[in-house]
Design goal:
The complex is a heterodimer of chains A (351) and B (620). Chain A contains 12 helices and 11 strands. By secondary structure, chain A is α/β, with parallel strands linked by helices. In chain A, helix 1 packs across helix 7, helix 3 packs parallel to helix 5 and helix 6 packs antiparallel against helix 9. In chain B, helix 1 packs across helix 5. The chains are: A alpha/beta (351), B alpha/beta (620).
Amino acid sequence: MTFLPKPKLHHPDLQKNALGYTRRDYEGPVSTLCAGCGHDSISAAIVRACFELDIAPHRVAKLSGIGCSSKTPTYFLGASHGFNSVHGRMPSVATGANIANRELIYLGVSGDGDSASIGLGQFAHAMRRGVNMVYIVENNGVYGLTKGQFSATADKGAKSKRGVVNTDEPIDLVGLALQLGATFVARSFSGDKAQLVPLIEAALKHQGAAFIDCISPCVAFNNHEGSTKSFDFVREHNEAVNALDLMLPREEITADYAPGTVELVTQHDGSVLRLRKLHTDYDVHDRVAALTYMQERHAAGEIVTGLLYVDPEPRDLHAALKTCATPLNALDDAALIPGSAALDKLNASLR
Amino acid sequence: MLQQVDRVEGLQRVNDFVVKFANVNGSGSASANALFAKSVLRMGIPATPRNIFPSNIQGLPTWYEVRVSEKGYLGARGGGADLMVQMNPQTWDQDIADIAPGGYLFYDNTKVLPASKFRRDIVVIGVPLTEITNAAYKSTRERQLFKNIVGLGALSMLLDMDPAAIEQLLAEQFKGRDKLIAANVQALHMGRDWVTANLEAPIGLRLKRADAVGDRIFVEGNSAAALGAVYGGATVCAWYPITPSSSLAEAFTRWCQRFRVDKETGTNKFAIVQAEDELASIGMVIGAAWNGARAFTATSGPGISLMQEFIGLAYFAEIPAVIFDVQRAGPSTGMPTRTQQTDILSCAYASHGDTKHVLLFPEDPYECFEFGALAFDLADRLQTPIFVMLELEIGMNDRLCRPFQWDDTRKLDRGKVMTAAELQAGKKFGRYLDVDGDGIPYRTLPGTHPTKGAFFTRGTSKDAMARYSEEGHDYQENMERLLKKHHTARTLVPPAIIRSAPDRAKYGAIYFGTTSPAMAEADEILAEQGITLDLCRVRGFPFGDEVAAFIAAHDHVFVVEQNRDGQLRSLLVNELEIDPKRLGKIVHYDGTPITARFIADAIARRLQPTPVASLREVVS
């Protein structure tokens, strides 16, 4: 397989967004992943979220590591620059890219092997630095490209397709992201588009480190009886704490729900998160409580999904670094070079 | 009170000797030592200090050796100290043994030591520094700090130094804090006065005002390289602490705070991230450079090892990156605080797959600055990692060098970056197309144009249009183009500096980096022996045609370097296809800087079958 472009022929009546782009403008070449792969649903959700948010495709930089999930940025946002970096190291490349130009949107796509196994360190440090990016882990608990080995998110006791039982404790990336200071933390399921699309939209609007752990069953190696990341298992054990609608500043904000069941969270950019509470006592602003809740429900065998934590006024890496408003990659010679007079003065001080 | 075990005729030398300070780490001796070296320079006499520091923080031995040389020899001399300033009882025996015959020992004789602790062939000078400072100061801290200055005062009297030079430096150092200046000057004179009252001064080693420093500056290579990065337009520095490169990133921070903070808004026109490890630091550099910012990391050999995979990616994906490698001896701790030239091959061929990288070899802080700035132009022009190969010897030591220069008409060369306007006008863009025949393709930066110029960056699975491809011919074409690009680099790196003897010599010597001053001095020693050499200082890799021509023009060429295996020699043999027999390997790799004595001795031995034992005496 080399390269499969999609036909450029568009239906004349395709719906256009505010920028005049159709959904097709946000797509990429045909996916080479297995038919039915959860990852393709996530790609489709990304396409829809970017289309609905009227994001100009070229203002997104998409980055990934290595693995099935990391192949997917080829298959969406074909008009965006992409970077397929090395295994487990997308976060550092994304961090550097973000530092260089604060004006683009950074979308990092990774997998459970890429982020929880080889890249755990880089994942952790990107979260704790507050890199303004959307970080999606397409989590299937298994290595696809190397044919079915467990990854570090595989649950203890989960059975592989070859019948091997995993004896190691799983790494919970959501728990880590919460602990390490990510300012937007969510979990979703590739099979639940209604939940996933608004989460991606809200994350794209978030001005800090936004992490989405998206359970994405592997149809080839981890969709069997005994797997805890299969479509059936996730559907049966999915416990959503809330349902999210993203409302942009231009939209009229309505809250036609019973009092106490809906919460409106205004993010820094003016976008409003309308949260319909499915668990009325769940507080998306309480990082510590969220951690406890995750652990309790995990012990009870549930997969908690939804928007788990949000800080609507996040401080990102640029705030910490006090970088100037002009992107660093756009500073000209005059802004960068102190010149010969300064150097002469300096020479004099070194004698 | 001149405590002499025997009456010894001490060495008699003016402006040509080595002083070694034996100190306790963390005792505040470093600034007094630096003050001594700078004072010598202010008297117009070239001086070259070297820190000799084991891998410790506090309480353990550290040395500071200053070679004073009116003739301007800046390389390490070797052969023991002419004056040992012994301030650390822990290393007494080894320091006493390290004094040259007829040399001088300066020590704190508050506590009387038995005669057996001294040598009979040295001049012993005891000054009761502890007693003097205990009487003059109350707090322990003051006693400790001023002891160094009182000691410097005593030394200045013994060496016949001009106190005005030291006083002037103190005034500059503590500018605006008059009390501190007065207190230091007072301590200085306390030492001078004690010597005047109690000893015969000056001794046989003397400093006499000269005019041999000129307009040269005195600065560390790491600091100079960091300044080069500022002038080279670097905005992103991602690094991980490692000796001996940490002070490069820290110097970049200081220079940026001075030159790159926007006066109106107080915001930074730079970003410095201390990464979690070297893998992340090079990853950030690659991400930033991919996105059009000039980015670098500073590291040492072990960091280079950790960065290998990413360096390969940057090579194949053609992303500019600048790596300052401040070289040291091998892994872990201990020898790594010693100097070497050991990363030549691991950088030249860094990473998996067929790779070849561009290296620059600065000889001193001046070139650290020059190459530091140039590296960013080269990285953007060639779209590849550029290694600036410093060594601990210049990285962490102050060195006399030409003043930094900058031509204000110079523009940063951003290389082949296609703009939105060019794309809009319909200029053809293919990320890996060799449009100009130099192997260098055009790139676009993310976010440039709404519909044109976007591409997907990968390692090797691609065609010239950056589309995914695993086809053998696509891979091969790309690899051939990368080789062509590397060939183009030959003409862009600084050419070797060749110095021919008045009558063309049969033999040549190739050397690089900090070997430079020792080689120049060795050449003079050899000339006195009747051995003439032509010299070729390599400043970059890939090697230019001039290097091949130099080798071809000589019967035999010595390659002088500071590692065990003759790594540059291997690179010459491999890349220029030279018969190894034509290149003699002269290597020095005990962790101390190479000396002129060593080089001259080694070359003379190879060329003259009879031993040249007298050489050591001849040199000093």
